[in-house]
Structure formats: C-alpha cells, structure tokens
Model the fold of this input.
Amino acid sequence: MYRIFIDEVGHHNLKSAEDPNERYLGLMGIIVNQDHADNGLTQSLNVIKIDIFGTTKVVLHRRELIDKRPPPFDRLRDPQVRTRFDTLILQLIRETEFSAITTLIDKKAHVEQYRVWQSQPYHYCLTAILERYVRWLQNANTVGDVLVESRGKAENMKLEAAYKRLYKFGTESVGPNIFQRHLSSNEIKLKLKSENISGLQIVDLLANPACRDLICRLTGESMRAEFGRQVVEILYASKYRRRWDGVVAGWGTKILP
Done:
C-alpha cells in the first residue's frame, strides 16, 4: 500500500496569469510506502526535530524555516544550527525511499493557448500527477491513495469533486479502469499542515526547489539557493519517476500546458 503526498507552490487563480510573481503554479507529489510513512519516516523526522528544536511537536513549514520565526524556528538564526539542519534534512531525503513527480503550469501560456477551454490550473496539474502516479502503481502491481494538504472549504469541495470525476471517468491518456484498479478509494484525503504529518512536511520542503527548477528550465535562469540546488540534484539522481532509459522529462516532471 502506497500513498502520494502532494503540496502546491504558487497561485491557482488564472486572473493573476499576467503577474510575473504569480505566473506559475506547481504541484509536487512524493510516493511513499504507507507503513514507512507512518513509522520509519516519522521517526527519522522526529530525530531531526528533537536535535534542532528540542521537540517533536513542531511542524516544519518552509515559510517559517526561511523566516526563522516564530519560536522555536528562531534557533535557525544560529548559522551552525542552520547548517546542521540543512545537512540532516538532505541526508533524510537521500536515505528515504520514495519516488517523486512534479508538474508546473505556465498560466500565461495556458490562457494564450486555450482561449475557450481553460482548465483550473490546480486540477490540471493534479491530473498530470495522478496519471503518472497510477501508472507507477500499475508498474509496481500495487495500490495506493492520495493525501493532499487541506486548502479551504470551497477549494476542498471542488478538489473532491474533481478527484471523483477523475476516478470515475479517467482521462484521454489513462482509462478509468486503471484509476479504479490502482487507487484504493474514490475519496481524496485532505489533511491540515497542523496535523504534523511527516509526508506533507517533507513534500513541503521539496516542492519549492522542484518547481523552481522547472521554472529555471523554462526561462534559462539559474537556481540561486544552494539548499535548493542540492535538493534538485538528489531528485534527478535517484527520486524522480523515469522511463526505462533514465529519461525524467514527461515521466517524473511535466511542464504544462
């Protein structure tokens, strides 16, 4: 039994497509054995939390890690503590068995290409991830479920409806029989970040570097953050879903539209 933990980076509103700061939306998912996610991964993450913050109750969130507040995140203001934290997290990422999928949509290009038909960007990215997820499950001859960070009442209701349609009808690329055979439920799981779920915290740390990498590939820019570059190196080296010959593009990463 596997579980994919999914997190988003950016804004889903198409009205902000022209804003350079909100032009892109990305989703990332990590596929983890459910027993390992509930036990081994949680235990490993708790060791880091106790080492750095002195408690397992802290919930790791990228924004608070960057801002180094509120307490106990202020401990990261010490350069030595910050270096140790980054080192431990990178080691955890390398050693944890998971497969990754990242999708990115250029909302501006999406609006320009589809003048009449315009998919909701979040749902569009999610569909691309879940197509690849069920194919991964099919290849492994197993089943899995889907856990996404809760977003808001209205957004959650739309997401639940979109997931059920996908489960029932499939897509042009993947038939409904594949979704129904390899997804263990027609209900998507929605959890709050505050529930301290290890898989959601790990994908939160990975999603921004993964999406930034795809933006840089589109724009020709270079990634500046050293931690982010190291995360991306690990993803391409051993985590991204890939074709039999090692190709990642289209398999573990997908740029839309």
